[in-house]
Amino acid sequence: GGQHIVPKISLDPGDEILESATGTAGIWLLDVARKVHPGVSLTGIDISQRLFPTQHPQNVTFAVHTVTNLPESWSNRFKLVNQRLLCGALTSEQWGAALGELYRVSKPGGWVQLLETGPETAMSGGPMKRYADVYAAVYVNKGLVSDLNETLDQRLKSAGFVNIQKRTTALP
């Protein structure tokens, strides 16, 4: 629906946003920077700087970090944390570490927004069932989490999150 920020939150000067795994030249972060007050600070992290944009607004910074081990100085710092499409990058153990870190760096009362993809494992019949089975086999073979859609709620609870909301959107 064109929303960059799904939770209904107010971002005011002095608030901070973190985008974990910013990749793709920081497109999400730069789009959000154009829509929020210039006094909101935005930080994008990734494991490599090669995709960081060279030009960006003054309230946007980029840094090389891994979501499984964020700086201690970031504890309770961010009002909003966004992370997209790490379903194909993190093992089950890494998901535990990453969610623990996202919880730690979020301000009390802040939000973590995760946007992930994958087939519903409950799909039945036809080509979609075969697709879901192949998807799961590839993920399991690579040590990744093939059922993240079904297990993410419990993983979030285990990391300490409360008020967990899930919205599933079908893509053609």
UniProtKB/TrEMBL annotation:
<dbReference type="GO" id="GO:0032259">
    <property type="term" value="P:methylation"/>
</dbReference>
<protein>
    <submittedName>
        <fullName>S-adenosyl-L-methionine-dependent methyltransferase</fullName>
    </submittedName>
</protein>
<keyword id="KW-0489">Methyltransferase</keyword>
<feature type="domain" description="Methyltransferase">
    <location>
        <begin position="17"/>
        <end position="110"/>
    </location>
</feature>
<keyword id="KW-0808">Transferase</keyword>
<dbReference type="InterPro" id="IPR029063">
    <property type="entry name" value="SAM-dependent_MTases_sf"/>
</dbReference>
<dbReference type="InterPro" id="IPR041698">
    <property type="entry name" value="Methyltransf_25"/>
</dbReference>
<dbReference type="GO" id="GO:0008168">
    <property type="term" value="F:methyltransferase activity"/>
</dbReference>
<dbReference type="Pfam" id="PF13649">
    <property type="entry name" value="Methyltransf_25"/>
</dbReference>
